[in-house]
Specification:
The protein is an alpha/beta fold. The chain contains 16 helices and 17 strands. Strands 8-9-11-12-13-14-15-16 form an 8-stranded mixed beta barrel, surrounded by 4 helices. Strands 2-3-1-6-7 form a 5-stranded mixed beta sheet, with helices on both faces. α6 packs across α7, α8 runs parallel beside α10 and α10 runs parallel beside α11. The protein starts with 9 loop residues before the first helix and ends with a helix.
Length: about 425
């Protein structure tokens, strides 16, 4: 059985790399460092015995070594991490080596009567172009490797300076998320949901915004994923729901007639065992009838919902409604929609944008509408921005829309003024 016992380890690798970098002859020669991790190796380990895991690692290491030029230096850094140094190379040759490693690792490894499929994510960095010392070179190559994983794994990418800027901003925002709530940096904007038959505002979607003291307005598409990764989405989600329910109930008490309050929830929130309890507590604390609340879940997250179905059913039993947002961008099936008990479909704005000229989008929207009618689901067209789009939607049986044609998301006071203006017209 092959083993990794004779392979250079981390300390030897550092010594070799340092010796290259301090050699005056290498000051102008390009040196490439390839750092790689085996993809999904933890899952592989769960299927194998310890001896078999060691065999897989040894076989992968040999494939990596055989994929590299004769003058390269290969090392095992521990666990499923490997490194390759290519002295006196070119960027093209280094990328060819990375491509060869990815390709050759793509072949199944035969271990103890079982085929194991291994892939790798590789990051490349070069000296003197990307770094002047070992520490910076390792950091940048590792950063590129993590970038390759984010791009889908089983591939390679070379370090670029924008990666450092991205990581720096990301770390800064993650650190600042902790104080965003405490320092009242989060605000709610509301976007109207309009019945185009009666020309009245029937609903309000609450959308959180982060007004950062240094960076200004942070787009939700940037900070919400960070909040989900770090767990801050739990506190943020509770604040959004409480504040939105409070605002909505105040509107009702002021005589403003609306049918629904739409609030986005993350699958991370739904997976919390206490989620349903907390939603019901907030509804009770804000004195809002559950029948007004509609929780929105994006279609891309809906495939994870079966495990949280009991929470959804409990809330639905209390009158809370559920909508599937951005519909058409994921893979939700008819049976999935029926099984999960959604009440409303929101057609993604991508299908509305070119609906006047794109026959394919027209067919898709028509199919979604037919499906919603068969399943007795409500339907809202998102992203309506022009007269032509609105005229087309009116020709269908879609009665409710949302989009910049009527209003972008606005602060609470502006939303209240919008409602008053619409009510005066009617």
């Amino acid at each position: 059985m092959q083993t990794l016992s004779q392979w250079p380890k981390r300390d030897q690798f550092y010594q070799y790399l340092d010796s290259l970098l301090i050699n005056p002859d290498n000051q102008t020669n390009l040196i490439a460092l390839l750092i790689m991790n085996l993809d999904n190796f933890r899952e592989v380990c769960e299927l194998l015995e310890f001896r078999d895991i060691e065999s897989v690692l040894a076989e992968a290491a040999q494939i990596i070594k055989n994929s590299c030029p004769a003058d390269s230096y290969t090392a095992w850094l521990g666990s499923d991490e490997f490194a390759v140094v290519l002295p006196g190379t070119t960027e093209k040759e280094a990328e060819q080596t990375a491509a060869a490693i990815c390709s050759n690792l793509g072949n199944p490894i035969y271990v103890n009567g079982r085929h194991v499929l291994i892939t790798a994510s590789l990051g490349l960095a070069f000296t003197p172009r990307d770094a002047q010392d070992r520490y910076e070179l390792l950091k940048n190559a590792s950063m590129a490797m993590n970038w390759a994983k984010k791009l889908g794994k089983n591939g390679y990418i070379s370090y670029e300076p924008m990666m450092s800027r991205h990581i720096s901003r990301r770390v800064s925002l993650v650190n600042d998320l902790a104080s965003a709530l405490a320092e009242n940096q989060l605000i709610l904007h509301y976007q109207p949901q309009v019945n185009i038959i009666s020309q009245s505002i029937v609903g309000a979607e609450a959308l959180v915004r982060w007004v950062h003291p240094v960076h200004g307005l942070i787009p939700p598409l940037e900070f919400i994923p960070l909040a989900e990764e770090t767990g801050y989405i739990i506190q943020i989600g509770e604040w959004v729901l409480y504040q939105a329910c409070t605002d909505f109930n105040n509107w009702l008490e002021q005589g403003i007639v609306l049918e629904r309050l739409a609030v986005n929830v993350s699958i991370v929130q739904l997976k919390q065992m206490s989620f349903a309890d907390r939603v019901l507590e907030i509804l009770e604390e804000t004195r809002l009838d559950p029948a007004y609340l509609e929780l929105e879940i994006t279609e891309s997250q809906s495939m994870d919902l079966p495990e949280v179905r009991p929470q959804i059913e409990r809330l639905r039993n209390h009158g809370v409604r559920f909508a599937i947002d951005d519909f058409g961008t994921g893979f939700a099936s008819l049976n999935h929609l029926r099984y999960m008990g959604f009440d409303t479909i929101k057609i993604d704005k991508a299908y509305i944008h070119n609906i006047i000229t794109n026959n394919r989008d027209q067919v898709i929207v028509g199919s979604i509408l037919t499906m919603a009618e068969l399943l007795q689901l409500g339907i809202i067209a998102e992203g309506v921005e022009t007269d032509d789009q609105l005229r087309y939607i009116k020709q269908t049986n879609i009665k409710e829309v949302q989009g910049y044609y009527f209003s972008p998301p606005v602060e609470k006071s502006a939303f209240e003024e919008l409602i008053q203006t619409v009510q005066k017209r009617s």
